Amino acid sequence: MISKPEFLWYIPNDVKAGHRGDTAVDDHNSLETLTTHARALEEHGWSGALIGTGWGRPDTFTVAAALAARTTTFEPLIAIRPGYWQPAHFASAAATLDQLTGGRVRINIVSGKDHLAAYGDSEGDQDQRYARTKEFMRLVRRLWTEVDVTYPGEYFQVTGSTAAPRIKPRGDRRYPKLYFGGASEPAERVAATEADVQLFWGEPLDGVRERIERLKALSSRLDRDLPPLEFGLRITTLVRDTTEQAWADAEAKVAEMAKSNGAGWHDHRGAVAVGQRRLLDLHTRGDVLDDNLYTAPGRFGGGGAGTTWLVGSAQDVARSLRKYQALGITQFVLSDTPYLSEIKRQGDLLLPLLRD
Fold first, then answer.
1. Helical H segments across 28-59, by residue range
2. Tens of each residue's pLDDT in the chain, 356 residues
């Protein structure tokens, strides 16, 4: 049985204004501005928003806590990194925020490259990086669900540890969901055994179908001992009143990206991971794949969720998102710029179609 779909947005959490074509204003990351975004998400039908992370950006957990305190239903999907956090410290911090917000916390575990030495961290090769992530996720979940935990891991160790406050079960929810991304073989092995939700970038339907099938088979082969893995899509959605206007605006945006060499867009392209490389290579198959998956942004500086866009009227984009849902996607993290006006536009035009 496929779970009821959930729809989240994106808060870039960046010290630099103008992220991916957003309106560049001096107070773009002030508490007042970010609160305006979070409250608009509540008012226009969104469950919450992914909050970006990385060294050199405002601390994600602090931003999430501040926004949760100023809202009533907004659920922050808090991106965090093993190594930046120790598991026991993080388990306690997240449990505290979860209690204070009445169970509104979601967590996105990030294992991509970062400026580790800048905050006193280090890691080995790709296999070691994901082995450490696997330990982190397993230990955090144990600290949320067990007491007096002793864990003599290779990367993390605790003795007689009980995180406080305790996570309060809420219906079927025993603890905050752990979202995870990554397309390499080591990353997929972590997702298959430890993640609650595997996030995909905006790949074509055939690529997402193949990855879902592979992850399900891998979960079975590795004897996953958690509830079945869920799947999510993180993608840009460019929605206008008509199909023609959407494509005209999309092409104009890409033309501006080409002029500026993608300034403000390519924040995932410094060290190109396997999943990002898959996206960047899509344009070799054509500028438009499936019905309306626009790959041209990846040629002119688009990175991460800005590499491919679903373009069209609300009906066009809803039709495409429903096709992903039919494959098994239950978690959608959408965005476009300017972020605030698109929260309202897509909340009012797109979400009602997806909830019919």
1. 31-43
2. 457 899 999 998 888 887 887 888 888 999 999 999 999 999 999 999 999 998 889 999 999 999 999 999 999 999 999 999 999 999 999 999 999 999 999 999 998 777 888 888 887 888 999 999 999 999 999 999 999 999 999 999 999 999 999 999 999 999 999 999 999 999 999 999 999 999 999 999 999 999 999 999 999 999 999 999 999 999 999 999 999 999 999 999 999 988 877 666 655 555 557 777 788 888 788 899 999 999 999 888 778 888 999 999 999 999 999 999 999 999 999 999 999 999 999 999 999 999 87
Nearest to 319 by CA among 205, 209, 197, 234: 205
User: Is there a cis peptide before residue 227, judged by omega within 30 degrees of 0?
Assistant: no
Determine contact, residues 212/327, Cβ cutoff 8 Å: yes
Nearest to 90 by CA among 104, 103, 108, 113: 108
How remote is the C-alpha of 336 from its chain's centroid?
A: 14
Nearest Cα to 18, choosing from 339, 355, 353? 339
Site of tokens 């306690």: 92
**DSSP three-state, residue 332:** strand
Q: Which residues contact 223 (CB under 8 A, 6 or more apart)?
A: none
- State the amino acid at position 55 in one-letter form: W
Residue type, 92: S
In order, the DSSP letters of 71-95 are -SS-EEEEEE-BTTB-HHHHHHHHH
Per the CB < 8 A criterion, the answer to whether 321 and 354 are in contact is yes
Determine the 3-state secondary structure of 205 from DSSP.
Answer: helix
CA 1/CA 98 separation, integer angstroms: 27
What are the residues facing 181 on neighbouring strands?
199
The model's pTM:
0.94
Length of the chain, in residues: 356
- Structure tokens of 73? 């239903």
Ordered DSSP codes for 99-132: HHTTS--EEEE--S---GGGGT----SHHHHHHH
Secondary structure (3-state) at 239: strand
